[in-house]
Write a structure and sequence with these properties.
Blueprint lengths: L1 H63 L7 E4 L4 E2 L7 H10 L3 E2 L8 E5 L2 E5 L3 E3 L2 E3 L3 E7 L2 E6 L9 E2 L4 E5 L5 E3 L10 H10 L11 H14 L9 H9 L7 H17 L2 H11 L1 E5 L2 E4 H10 L8 H10 L12 H18 L4 H8 L17 H12 L4 H6 L3 E4 L3 H18 L8 E8 L4 E6 L11 H4 L2 E2 L5 H10 L7 E4 L4 E2 L5 E2 L10 E4 H6 L3 H11 L1 H10 L18 E2 L1 H12 L3 E2 L5 E5 L5 E4 L5 E2 L3 H16 L4 H6 L7 E6 L5 E7 L4 E7 L14 H10 L14 E7 L13 E7 L21 H9 L1
Parallel strand pairs: 1-15, 3-4, 12-14
Antiparallel strand pairs: 1-11, 2-10, 4-5, 5-8, 6-7, 8-9, 13-14, 15-25, 16-17, 16-30, 18-23, 19-22, 20-21, 24-27, 25-26, 28-29, 29-30, 31-32
Helix pairs in contact: 1-6, 3-9, 3-10, 5-6, 5-7, 9-10, 10-11, 14-23, 16-18, 16-19, 16-21
């Protein structure tokens, strides 16, 4: 019993001790549990700090470096005015409107003009050209007889030359599609930052990147209304979202946006942030091109620089900021108009503008340029040529990131004329229950080899299949001048007679070819002049077989068009596939007296700082003797006077001499026309993309579009001095025999000195048939 008591006492002591230990242990265990609580918190804190450092590095590294990949901007040719230039007052006014110039009562500001009948007063914009900066310049232009009759400066003195700023026609932008025109603070109308503050972020100058007051206000409004009616994003947050993040609606993105906005404000001034916002914010879409920044948006919507915007236009851009798709002024003008007027009302309430100014601006139309050819819009067919030339000299990375300025030869007036003529011609020629006819146009200055306009299809503003460059189709009779040029070089003349009679051509594997004329008639012996003018197939094949098909193929190469296929007699009638731009290259050599120059679309490239980087001067070499080409060109003039092109010749302005040739492929699948004056060459193709017959000849299809273009273009008559070694004589057009004055159906042709032509019986021509005063005859022909 005592043992039990002893044991019990010992156990009681142990219990008390254990209880004490446990009491102490509670504190100890609490201490032991401290790491379990704080370590995760410390780790989370460390991770958060590390994340902040990461975001801070992301913000500063991108913002301190090159902030944007700057696309190369591409410009059209600048219109140059000088006394005597073919141009009308309507033409200049259209060019000024295309450039976004405003027609005002007094043209005393850059980008303005005033028209008074046949006189236009204007003030050009300052512009940095490849050959130096040009300040704004006032001028007065008077017109007479379809030309610039007088060009005067502000003091009334004569101006030798006035150059307008060029139209922005496109960009070479990166894969992300972002395009922008960088603006500096001095380029921005002061009302734009004011309007952004009033409409988007009233406390921009006070908050540190996020606005807690705005957040609470938006929370109350949204809770009481039961739906999201108001946002709380600051301008800084909008910049962060556009520049660093995406538009996904997640809490993670929103939290990251807030942190980065705070960091951005911690490192950079409000002025720097606002300027970045003006250049970054997304303001619209143009096909695959995303319109970023107020600089490009001003061109895209109003066709003029940001500095020239008026109050109602500024309010429109600020209105679009809220949602460029929802407030697209071209698709939803009524929405934009309502929001624009709300912006004007807020500006008036804030005191930024007067109530009268707000009322007057609210009464105005949106003023958005609906015709994108007048805004900073792309000409995709022409831009294909530009890109091909640029990539031969620059890396894609340079073109899409370095902010290069590319000056081209595109003539916006001719481009617009060509687009309208092709679209109208295709509508007129379209047959019911048939696929849509397609077409292409290439216009070139043959003296400079500069491409002036390219139309790749009936919907010229859409990117895609560029028929002017990619559609290689049989050219039909467009090849015939090459056959005759080869024969002239071999010693024949335009008076040489060739038999237009049935001909059988032996082909490989025992086959034969029996070409026929389009009218199924044989015309007997005719001069080369008539055979080409009337596009006689049998005479052409006979001539080509006499000189040799390989020589014709070689001549094609000399003129700038390589033919890879083996020489085949069918080539003599156009069984060779070329794109319209290839035909333009070929005929450019014919129109320039036999001097071959590669076609070019780029004139110069300038760095972002204005330093000239590259120029693309004319390079040329003599491909064919000018005396030989002169004879051929004379025959092509007769095509327009007597032959298959006479309907086009009749549509030209009075006194204009042109040369040209129709082309029709087998089964009427392709309709072609190529023709030129002194300073303009045009090639037109019409056909179906699936190569089915069109039912159109070159004369009934493509030539009508060519005629429409040339009837509305400023032209100089085709003329060339008679080369040494040539003289002229008068022959009977039907037979090619020499005739005297008042006899037969005379036509004057250039021939090599010493050429003898038999006389037409009964005409009393001299035995030699040589005209005594060849130059007088030639002048009469070319007038």
């Amino acid at each position: 019993m005592a043992r039990k008591t002893r044991t019990a006492g010992r156990r009681g002591l142990g219990a008390r001790a254990w209880a004490g230990i446990r009491h102490v242990g509670r504190g100890a265990w609490w201490l032991l549990r401290l790491p379990l609580v704080w370590v995760p918190l410390l780790l989370l804190l460390a991770a958060f700090v590390g994340y902040l450092f990461y975001l801070d590095h992301l913000v500063t590294s991108r913002f301190d470096g090159r902030r944007w990949n700057l696309p190369a901007h591409v410009y059209a040719r600048p219109l140059e005015l000088y006394e005597g230039r073919p141009l009308s007052a309507d033409g200049l006014a259209a060019e000024l409107r295309r450039l976004g110039y405003r027609n005002v009562a007094a043209a005393d500001q850059p980008g303005t003009f005033r028209r008074n009948g046949g006189r236009i007063e204007l003030m050009t914009r300052p512009f940095r050209f490849w050959d130096g900066a040009q300040p704004a310049q006032a001028a007065s232009v008077a017109f007479a007889g379809g030309t610039v009759g007088m060009l005067r400066g502000p003091a009334g003195g004569p101006l030798p030359l006035l150059r307008l700023d060029p139209l922005l026609i496109g960009s070479v932008f990166p894969a992300d599609g972002e395009d922008r025109i960088i603006v500096e603070p001095g380029d921005v109308p002061p009302l734009i930052p004011t309007a952004l503050r009033v409409v988007e972020d009233r406390r921009f100058d006070q908050h540190p990147g996020i606005d807690l007051f705005a957040i609470m206000r938006a929370l109350v409004v949204n809770l009481t209304s039961g739906k999201v009616r108001q946002g709380a994003s600051t301008l800084t947050q909008q910049l962060v979202r556009s520049y660093f993040l995406s538009n996904e609606r997640t809490l993670t993105r929103k939290s990251r946006e807030a942190l980065m906005a705070l960091l951005l404000e911690a490192h950079y001034s409000k002025a720097d942030i606002l300027n970045a916002y003006l250049n970054e914010i997304y303001l619209g879409q143009d096909g695959s091109r995303a319109v970023h920044g107020f600089g490009l948006a001003s061109q895209f919507y109003f066709g003029k620089p940001l500095a020239e915007l008026q109050l109602h236009e500024i309010a429109t851009l600020v209105a679009i900021v809220r949602g460029p798709s929802y407030y697209d002024p071209r698709r939803h003008p009524e929405r934009v108009l309502a929001r624009r007027n709300m912006v004007l009302k807020l500006l008036a309430e804030d005191g930024a503008i007067s109530a009268a100014e707000a009322s007057a601006a609210s009464a105005r139309k949106l003023g958005v340029v609906l015709d994108r050819n007048v805004a900073a819009t792309y000409f995709p067919a022409f831009m294909t040529l530009v890109h091909q030339e640029l990539t031969a000299h620059y890396r894609d990375q340079d073109l899409t990131t370095e902010g290069l300025r590319v000056f081209t030869s595109l003539d916006p007036m001719l481009q617009s004329t060509a687009e309208d003529a092709l679209a109208g011609g295709l509508r007129r020629l379209q047959r019911p229950k048939k696929p849509e006819l397609e077409g292409a146009v290439v216009l070139v200055n043959p003296q400079t080899a500069e491409v002036l306009a390219v139309v790749g299809g009936r919907r010229s503003g859409f990117e895609g299949y560029n028929r002017a460059i990619e559609a290689r189709r049989p050219i039909g009779s467009l090849v015939k001048p090459v056959v005759y040029l080869t024969a002239l070089e071999a010693g024949r003349t335009l008076a040489t007679r060739i038999d237009d009679a049935p001909i059988e051509v032996k082909l490989a594997r025992g086959k034969t070819w029996l070409p026929q004329n389009f009218d199924r008639q044989a015309h007997g012996e005719v001069p080369l002049l008539r055979a080409l003018a009337e596009s006689m197939n049998m005479a052409t094949v006979r001539l080509g077989m006499e000189v040799g098909v390989p020589k014709v193929v070689k001549m094609l190469g000399r003129l700038g068009v390589g033919v890879a296929a083996a020489p085949n007699p069918s080539l003599l009638l156009g069984a060779v596939d070329l794109a319209p731009v290839d035909v333009a290259q070929l005929y450019s050599t014919l129109a320039s007296g036999g001097f071959r120059s590669p076609l070019r679309a780029v004139r110069a490239v300038q760095g972002p700082d204005g330093a000239p980087l590259s120029q693309f001067p004319l390079s040329t070499e003599q491909a064919v003797d000018p005396a030989v080409v002169y004879q051929l060109d004379h025959a092509l003039v007769e095509v327009m006077r007597r032959g298959t092109g006479r309907a086009a010749g009749n549509r030209l302005p009075a006194g204009i001499v042109a040369a040209g040739k129709t082309g029709t492929s087998n089964d009427l699948r392709d309709s072609w026309f190529a023709g030129f004056t002194q300073d303009l060459l045009g090639v037109v193709w019409i056909g179906y993309d699936d190569n089915q017959p069109t039912g159109l000849t070159g004369a009934s299809g493509a030539m009508s579009v060519w005629s429409e273009i040339f009837a509305h273009a400023p032209l100089q008559s085709f003329a060339a001095p008679l080369p040494e070694g040539l003289t002229t004589l008068s022959i009977d057009y039907p037979t090619g025999l020499a005739v005297g004055e008042g006899c037969g159906d005379p036509v004057v042709v250039p021939v090599p000195l010493g050429t003898e032509v038999p006389p037409l019986p009964g005409c009393g021509a001299s035995p030699m048939g040589i005209v005594e005063k060849p130059l007088e005859w030639l002048r009469g022909l070319m007038q």
